[in-house]
């Protein structure tokens, strides 16, 4: 009597399931990259604009500066009017909260809430 050796590895069905899940995760990741890049650009811009405010720029000048810099970095979700600009202990603090809807497939979308601040919180 011979002993049967058990095969090791994944069956074709499990390869399809794992492949499908990995493909879906990659699709979500690729679709979210532009939204994250825009968030990082906004974060970088508001830190520079807050430094201008510390140098004596007015609120209107800071909003215009954000608009100009946003055009260069292709920021379309947030405008200068959306910025919350205030002073805290002689430092200019700029905050903005916004949501970005990212289409995934057909009528399925991903909604991402962002909060950027010049203080780095």
What is the share of helical residues?
A: 40-55%
Shape assignment: elongated
How would you name the oligomeric state of the polypeptide chains in this document? single chain
The radius of gyration over CA amounts to 23 Å
N-to-C series of helices and strands: HHEEE
What is the arithmetic mean of pLDDT?
A: 92
- Strand order, main sheet: write it out: 1-2-3
If helices are DSSP runs of H or I spanning 4 or more residues, what is the number of helices? Answer: 2
The strand count comes to 3
Ends distance: 69 Å
What proportion strand? 15-25%
Main sheet properties:
3 strands, antiparallel
In total, how many domains does the architecture comprise?
A: 1
Structural class, by secondary structure, is alpha+beta
User: Which spans have pLDDT < 50 for at least 5 consecutive residues?
Assistant: none
InterPro entries: DUF4845 (IPR032314)
Pfam family, one: DUF4845
Protein name: DUF4845 domain-containing protein
Description of the structure:
With 121 residues, this protein is of the alpha+beta class. The chain has one domain (13-117). The chain has two helices and three strands, in the order ααβββ. It has helices at residues 12-54, 59-72, and strands at 84-88, 91-105, 108-117. Strands 1-2-3 form a three-stranded antiparallel β-sheet, with helices on one face. The longest helix is centred in the N-terminal third of the chain and has 43 residues, at 12-54. The termini are far apart. The relative contact order is 0.15. The mean pLDDT is 92. It comes from Aromatoleum toluvorans. This is DUF4845 domain-containing protein.
């Amino acid at each position: 009597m011979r002993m049967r050796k058990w095969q090791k590895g994944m069956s074709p069905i499990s390869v399809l399931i794992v492949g499908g899940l990995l493909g879906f995760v990659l699709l979500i990741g690729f679709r979210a990259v532009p939204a994250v890049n825009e968030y990082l650009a906004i974060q970088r811009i508001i830190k520079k604009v807050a430094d201008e405010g510390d140098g004596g720029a007015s609120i209107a000048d800071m909003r215009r500066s954000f608009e100009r810099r946003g055009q260069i970095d292709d920021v379309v979700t947030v405008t200068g009017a959306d910025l919350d600009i205030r002073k805290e202990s002689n430092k200019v603090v700029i905050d903005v909260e916004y949501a970005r809807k990212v289409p995934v497939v057909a009528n399925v979308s991903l909604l991402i809430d962002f909060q950027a601040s010049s203080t780095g919180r």
